[in-house]
Structures are given as C-alpha cells and as structure tokens.
Amino acid sequence: MAALFTTLIVWLAFCFVAGHRRSFLTGIRRLLFYDDSLAGFWAQHNGTLKHGRNGFLQIGHHASCKLVNFPKQRISCLNRKLRSRRGGGALSATCRDEKILVANRGEIAVRVIRTAHEMGIPCVAVYSTIDKDALHVRLADESVCIGEAPSSQSYLFIPNVLSAAVSRECTMLHPGYGFLAENARFVDICREHGINFIGPNPDSIRIMGDKSSARETMKKAGVPTVPGSEGLLQSTEEAFKLAHEIGFPVMIKATAGGGGRGMRLAKEPEEFVKLLHQAKSEAAAAFGNAGVYLEKYIQNPRHIEFQVLADKHGNVVHFGERDCSIQRRNQKLLEEAPSPALTEELRKAMGDAAVAAAASIGYVGVGTVEHPVTEMISSTDLIEEQIRVALGEKLQYKQDPFLVVSSIISAPCDSFMAGIPTTIDYHKLILDVEDFRNGKIDTAFIPKHENELAAPQKLVLSTAPKELAGASA
User: What SUPFAM superfamilies does the database record attribute to this sequence (predicted)?
Assistant: First the structure.
C-alpha cells in the first residue's frame, strides 16, 4: 500500500510541475479522501485521476500502462465533503460506482465531463463521424461513434445512443441541452433499461414541452400568464375571432419547440390569416407539430428567466434571474445577471412564482444547464447539483435571500479562429451603446439601435471568401 501512495504522490507532483492545475487539485481531492474500501483509482495520460471500476491503479497510456492491483469492493456511495453551504468550498469528493454517458457534443459535453471527473465519476462520450477528434471525445474515459454527421443519424438517433450506454455499462445518462434533452419517450426508454436519466421526469417534460399545456398548468398553479387562447387553435375562423377579442397586435406561437421558429407577430387583422398559415407551416417543418396558440403581444418587454433547482424530495429553490432581453429574431444575444430592472420586491415575487411553477408539476433537476452566467453569479456548479439530484440526494440549499457574488454579462458567440468571422465585434458594439450602459434595454433593443450596430454586419458581409481562405491558410 505504501508503494501505491508513493506512485500517486509522484504523479501528482508531475501534474503540479507541468502546470496541470485541475488535474493536481482533482488528484489531491482523491488522495485526501482515499479509503481502502474504494473500488480503485486510475490515472490516465489526459491528466485526470478517476475512480476505477476494475480494481486497479492504472498509470500510463492504455496498453502500455502499468497496473497496480488492490481488492475491489462494490460501493453504493461515499461522500466526504468540505465545502460551504452554497457550494463554493475548496474541496469536494464523491466516489461512486457510477458511469455517465454524455449524450451531446461541444461545450456542454465538455462541462459535464469536467464536473463528473471532479466528482470521481468516469464518462463515456458519443460522437458522430465528423466529431471524432472533438475535445469532448478526447476528455472522456471512453468514446463510441454513434453515426454519420447529420444529427438525425447520430445524436438524435435513439437506438445508437442507447446502445452506446448499454454496451459500456453506463448507469447514468446526461443529455446536455437540445438533442434528446426534452424527449419524454427517450427518458422512458432509459428507465426501461435501468439507466438513470439526469434530468426531469418524463411527465414534466410532456407538460412543459407543450407550451399550450404549460400555459394552462401555470394558470392552475396561480402563476401569472399573458392573456391568450385557451389551448390550441382549432380553425382559422376560431383564431381570427379570438385575435379580435384579445386585441391586436397578437403573437402566434408554435406549441412545440423554440428558438423563435413557428412564431409570427400579427399587427393588423389584414395580415393575420397569412401569418397564421406561415407559423403553422414552419412549426410543422421544424418540430413535426403544426399546433399553434395565441398570446397578446406585449410591446417591448423584458425577457427575464429564473433558474430553479428541484430534488426528488419535494424541495425547490431558485438561484436568481437572467436578463435575456437583448435578442435578434427572438433569439438571445446577451444575458445579464442579475437584471438591472428588478427591485428586491419584484425579484422575490418572480422567484416565488418560478418555484411554485416547478413544484406544481413535480419538477426534478435544474431545468437547463446552458446558462453559465447563473453559475458565475451564484458560485454554483449547476451540473454537479443536477447529478447529485439524479442520485437522490437532498438539496443542500435553503431559499435564503439570494446572494449575488458578482454581476456578469454573457455573450454566446463562436469560438475565435483566425480568418473566420465571429459575433465578438457585434457584442462589443452592444456594450458601448449608451442605453445598454444605463440599463435601458428590452426585446426591441436591436431594432432601436440598428444604425449603431450596423458596422460589424457590413464588415462580415463584405469580406470576400478568398480573403477568408487566405487568412485561415
């Protein structure tokens, strides 16, 4: 056993000298909380130290590695924690007999793998043929090709995703966001195969995935809603009559999907029928569901979201809000947290409504993990909390007055690559607009300031393809 610890210490020293800070800290966590009853650890060439399901300490690269054997015992759970109640402490180690299949790609897959490794849980990555060299594939402990480049043949193809999880003996599956994250049938299938889906239960997905049903559910829970239709529109005649009763302008919205598709703003009665048919056709093509409903159009509102977290024991809290008002074509460009528009009284009222909404449908999980801006202001790893909830742990949080660690502005944009146009310059211009600096923003911010924000668009459009090719050569 002394030789085992000597080997671990040498490896950790290498990580420290080589500058692998995350690997060093992760290793220290495991070493500090080492226990003979654990099933094992392995150290791989990618600089991580992980819980080993095979009862060996593995050092080196795959076949060339050295194996140090010690008895393996199955364990259900081991928790040793030193951290603050809000999750910001220095040390946290959880070693379990678990393995997570990450059913996604890109940034979210990398974030899930990073957090799982810090919790001592190995991960299996899935990838399409075009993603074989992607970062998430290199970071994972194992990887499985699940099909060709089109997502319909890979990341959305349930049989291949499920086969990867079963063949690699995964006990859990993290869907990330998008793809299969809101597919209730997929959650059912995972459960049928004994795989713990890290996310909401299928009934919640069915209720909230259909926006028309979600409206009715929220109204029953006492959550304020915008005036609109009671359910889906059944005919053009009914829709036209209801639009007059609500009063123009009205918003026609697809009941399925999101991202601004299947949405049309009808300002006048004369254009309503044409826009209704356009919305239904776009919704059918994008989501396979032509259902639409009506809402009163709120002119120039703020778009504010609250981040909730719910466990399997009926506990629900929120982590404050994100102001996503700056949008183009109903898609978010900037997120700011906390919102400069909310008073403490309004923040509490909206937060209470969000918690009530989640509790009313028995929601479990975090709702979404695509908003690191919330993690930044609350010093909370939402993915870690999501995994802990999936494992049946109770929340460690109480709904104290929300503590904002800092104020953050997040701008989703393409990664920088020489010669490839990105939206970075566009976001910089937004930050320089006086109204933005003064907190005077709403969903009409982009049209109002289109002249001030036109420069980077012209720059990108005027860049010749051969110039881009030369710059990236």
Answer: Glutathione synthetase ATP-binding domain-like (SSF56059), PreATP-grasp domain (SSF52440)
Q: Are 119 and 384 in contact (CB under 8 A)?
A: yes
Residue-wise pLDDT tens digits, 394-426:
998 888 766 666 677 776 654 444 556 777 888
Cβ(212)–Cβ(231) below 8 Å: yes
Q: Which domain holds residue 173?
A: 79-198
pLDDT in tens, 107-156: 999 999 999 999 999 999 999 999 999 999 999 999 999 999 999 899 99
Whether residues 325 and 435 share a domain: the answer is no
Q: How many other C-beta atoms can be found within 10 angstroms of the C-beta atom of residue 280?
A: 21
Q: What is the CATH number of the domain that holds 140?
A: 3.40.50.20
Q: What would the two tokens of residue 341 be?
A: 């528009």
- Give the integer Cα–Cα distance in Å for 338 and 321: 6
Residue with tokens 């992607």: 134
- Is residue 303 left, alpha or beta, with left meaning phi > 0 and alpha meaning psi from -120 to 50? beta
**Do residues 140 and 180 share a domain?**
yes
Residues 94 and 190 in one domain: yes
pLDDT in tens, 16-33: 444 443 443 344 333 333
Number of domains in the chain: 5
